[in-house]
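quick one: guanine bound model?
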Amino acid sequence: MSAKVIEGKRIAQEIREEIRQETERLKERGIVPGLAVVLVGGDPASAVYVGNKEKTCKEMGFHSEVHRLPEETTQEQLLAVVADLNRNDAVHGILVQLPLPKHIAEKAVIDAIAVEKDVDGFSPQSTGNLVIGDESLLPCTPAGIIELIRRAGVDPAGKHAVVIGRSNIVGKPVAMLLLRENATVTICHSRTENMEAIASQADILVVAIGKPKAIGRRYVKPGAIVIDVGVNRLESGKLAGDVDYDECLDVAGAITPVPGGVGPMTIAMLMQNTLKAAKRKAGV
Ligand code: GUN
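yep, here:
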């Protein structure tokens, strides 16, 4: 039997519509969620990502500001921009687009963002809050994955979730979120022995390794829900996930496609975090 395809693109659109409607209601009470995005330098891919964030903010009815700074911006100048945004009452979320030019220490900049405005959820304080289960803004891609699992009708409680990949941005936080959802969680990585035997026990398999089509059907338990975080450009120019989608389609119970699976959820969760931060500040 063919797996149910988890339509991230459609689900993200639904969430965006929910956010747009809630924003409309908040505006009647004088609350306008605001997101500031900071882009340093002229990396073309980053410029496209930032443009998409700006466009989505406008669609949501948010206040949106983009600070486009030259490549030669010093770390001190960038820290001063972040400090201004921390003090700016119209701004509820701050996102500094990564990667930054090499002469700037990313960690110093991320650490400087006020925790209540850390809509990326990348800072040590946000990460610590996530680990100990305190209220916090959640990193966008991991939060989007949990939302996809929920909206596919799967409750992670009691299930065996296997996460392949241990990055700070996806693997580690998604494992923590699955644990918070009461799953039994195993993390596999490049040094894991016998990964196939472990992965094929998973009821929920999350793959975030950045290797095209690396995970084939032998890693998938029949009926498992498979979440593919990878976005890899093939020589043919086509995009492929980390999972061999065609091969796994008749083994998995449900699977996310690439593109149109996890990807569109990230920006929807960024909007949700901005809305949350605005509501929290207003005491709603
Ligand atoms: N660069 C690529 N993805 C991201 C993201 O999610 N957040 C930030 N800040 N930079 C990125």
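The domain at 30-114 is CATH 3.40.50.10860 (Rossmann fold).
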